[in-house]
Structures are given as structure tokens and as C-alpha cells.
Amino acid sequence: MAKSPQPTRVTDRKRRIDGERSRSAILDAAAQLATVEGIGGLSLSRLAGEVGMSKSGLFAHFGSKEELQLATVDRANELFDDQVLEPALTAPTGLERLQGLAERYLRYVEAETFRGGCFFATVLTEVDMQPGPVRDRLVRFLGDWLGQLEGAVRDAQGEGAIDAAEDPAQLAFEIEAALFLANAQFVVARGPEPIRRAERAINRRLAEATTGAA
Amino acid sequence: MAKSPQPTRVTDRKRRIDGERSRSAILDAAAQLATVEGIGGLSLSRLAGEVGMSKSGLFAHFGSKEELQLATVDRANELFDDQVLEPALTAPTGLERLQGLAERYLRYVEAETFRGGCFFATVLTEVDMQPGPVRDRLVRFLGDWLGQLEGAVRDAQGEGAIDAAEDPAQLAFEIEAALFLANAQFVVARGPEPIRRAERAINRRLAEATTGAA
Predict the structure, then answer these.
(1) Residue partners of A182: CB distance under 8 A and separation at least 6
(2) How far away is chain B from the Cα of A61, in angstroms, using its nearest Cα?
(3) CA neighbours closer than 13 Å in the CB half-sphere of residue A103
(4) Cβ neighbours of residue A169 under 8 Å, at least 6 residues apart?
(5) What element of type H or E holds B204?
(6) Greatest C-alpha distance within chain B
(7) How many A-B residue pairs are in contact by the CB < 8 A criterion?
(8) Hey, what CATH topology would domain B72-209 get?
(9) I want to staple A76 with a disulfide (CB 3.0 to 4.6 A). Which of A119, A124, A172, B111 is the partner?
(10) Which residues contact B159 (CB under 8 A, 6 or more apart)?
């Protein structure tokens, strides 16, 4: 086949898309690996072996281990937003958003989105005693997540669906507790039981908190 | 520079330190370190630096990294038994034992018994994807712990203090969920709030489960 000249901007564009694809493929592998072996073990050389690239090839994408770790957290955050936050937050009422956040989280765990369980639960437990930008980013993620649960409770209270006497932060804590333990037990047991237990716990708690007005 | 003979007192001091470091003192340091840097990083050379012993001195106590890790888990288990299980299990009724297990666990977390939070929560999250004897021992610990909570619920039901309609495993899950999240949040925030939230969650749940007959 004869070579035809290709417009430069198309070649550049293709190269850029290829580059973005390989960057996100690398980060998907990195996020999986972080839930199995820890984000601390996520060196460029370890990951190079996993994705079949040279260490220098990886260096073209990420200048340092810390940059790689931070990009991995961001990639995991994108996946979490896609699978949990965004679909849950489209619901029209606060109570439905609250239920949706819990349900979507449990689906995300049960679907084994990450081989070693929820990325954020696993990795924050690993780095919680290691000050630095990776820990900071994970702590911010956790604060945002609890803020979403609490915000949905407040909205539901504003809509008259959840008793105004409930402390939103306390109710968010109790829902998150069931989700957090479900994830930890699912990773160990790989069966549906902890997921079902969390559902029962949350349904029961919400049945008490709802006024039946909505 | 002329070599001077090493002062005898330095040699003596080193010998005394080596001699005084009991096996359990080494393991206390190992257990602390495991909650901060992970049990995977608990090599003999890393621990030698931490306790000021030679690597060969540590080898006299533990033949391999895995032996050291298993002995560390056992030592953490002893501490847990002393601080949580044994005092809680002296209570005369099932309901008091259940409340005691939860209260003692929260005290053990709040007292920072381990620098990086509950040894078992932290280390099992680290090794849950790494099959082997360390993971096996931690999974057994967790099963025993949940069994204690569930057994106390059953005893309380037998004594008429907790509603017979409650599923003991479900109630144990819900109590453990609050304890587990309290530990994780305490490690990050280092304030009493998560401990108080767990207490409120458990008190509320037990108020519902108790028949008031006891």
C-alpha cells in the first residue's frame, strides 16, 4: 500500500489520543494494583512490569512515584464518580439521592470494580499515618463523600422526608459505617452476605429516620 | 588518625541493651510499626533499626520475616485480649458483655494502644489480598471477634434482655460497623467525635433491640 501524506494535525491528534489512552490504561492498572499490593508499592518499575512497558516509557507519562500515585488516586476518583456519585446524584429528591449513594456504593463493591475492594477505603487505611499529598487527597475524598451523604440527609429533611430531629452527620456516619464494613468483609469473604447485611442495616435505619411524609 | 580501643562501657551498654530487650518488647515495637508502615514492611532489618538491635540479634529471636510477622500478630492479640476481651467478658450478663466489648474496643482505639489505630483493622486491610498464614491468622481473629459479639447477643436473648426476633449476626454486624468506622476516622482525625458517634449509634441500636425485661 502506497503511503499517502497525512495532515500533520491529524497525526498529532492521533498521537495525543493514543497517549491519553495509554495513560488511562496505565492508571487503570495502577489503581487495581494499589488495592492489592498497596499504593506504597506502586513504583514505576513495579508498574512497568504489570503493564508491559519500559520504566523509561512510564517516566514519559509520570515524572516520579508520587506523581504516579496522585494520578492513580485521580483516576480512581473518576471511576468512583462515574459508577457511584453521578448516577446517584441525578435522583430528584434528597432521600432518593441518599438511598442511591448507598446502593451504588454497594454495587461498586460487589462488582469488584477494584480487585482489592474500594480503592479509597483500602488506600486511606494504608497511608493514614503517612503525611503528604497522597494522604491529603484521600482525606479530602473521604470528607467529600461524607459531605454528599450528609447533604442528601439535609435535603431530605428540607423536603420533609427525614425527621428534622435527626443529626445529619450522625445519620451519615451510621450509613457510612454499614458501607465501610460491607466493603471490608466482602474483600475477605467474596460472598454477598456483607452486602445484604449493610442493605438491611441501612433500610432499617432509614425506615426509622423517615417521617413517611414523602 | 590513630585507632583508640573502643571504650568498654559502650560494648557493655550494647550488650545490656541487647540483653534487656525481651522478645515481647521487640514485638511491641513491631506491632506499633505494623500499624504505621504496614506489616509487609516489617523486615528484620527495618525492625532492627527501630529497636536498636543488630539484624543478627533479631534473627536469634525470629528465624524469618514471616515468623516475625506471625509473632507480631500474636503479641497484638495478647494486648487486645488484655485490654478489650478479658475485661468485657467478666460481666455477668450477655447484654453487659456486649456493651462492654463495644466500650472497651472504643477505649482501646481512643487510648491509641497502637499508633496507627486498631492493629487488626489496619493489618487485615493491608494483607486481605495476600494469601498466606498472616492473612489466615487475622481472618481467624476477625471471625473470633464477631463470634464474641454474636455470642453475647445470643446470651442476652437467652436471658430475655434482647428481643428474640433480632438476628444475632445482623446485630453484631451493625455494632461492629460503628466500631470499625470509629477506628478508621479516629486515625485520620485524632479527635473524640468518631468515638462519640459510634457510642450514640450503638446505644440507639441497643435501645431498640432490648426488650427492657432485664
Answers:
(1) A106, A109, A194, A195, A197, A198
(2) 28
(3) 13
(4) A146, A150, B197
(5) helix B193-209
(6) 85
(7) 97
(8) Tetracycline Repressor; domain 2 (1.10.357)
(9) A119
(10) B93, B94, B95, B214
Q: Does domain A70-209 have CATH number 3.40.50.720?
A: no
> pTM of the prediction?
0.89
Output the 3-class SS for B44-99.
Answer: HHHHHHHHCCCHHHHHHHCCCHHHHHHHHHHHHHHHHHHHHHHHHHCCCCHHHHHH
Set of cell numbers at residue B138: 487475622
| Cβ–Cβ < 8 Å for B166, B209 | yes
Nearest CA-CA distance, residue B55 and chain A, Å: 23
pLDDT band at A1 (very low <50, low <70, confident <90, very high): very low
Task: Specify the residue for cell string 468518631.
Answer: B194
Cα–Cα distance for residue pair A198/A99, rounded to 1 Å: 12
- The nearest alpha carbon in chain A to B187 belongs to A128
Bridge partners, residue B210, by sequence: B162
* Cα–Cα distance measured from residue B106 to residue B104, given in angstroms and rounded to the nearest whole number: 5
User: A10-44, pLDDT tens digit by residue?
Assistant: 667 666 666 666 888 899 999 999 999 999 988 77
Task: Examine the pLDDT at B147 and tell me if it is beyond 70.
Answer: yes
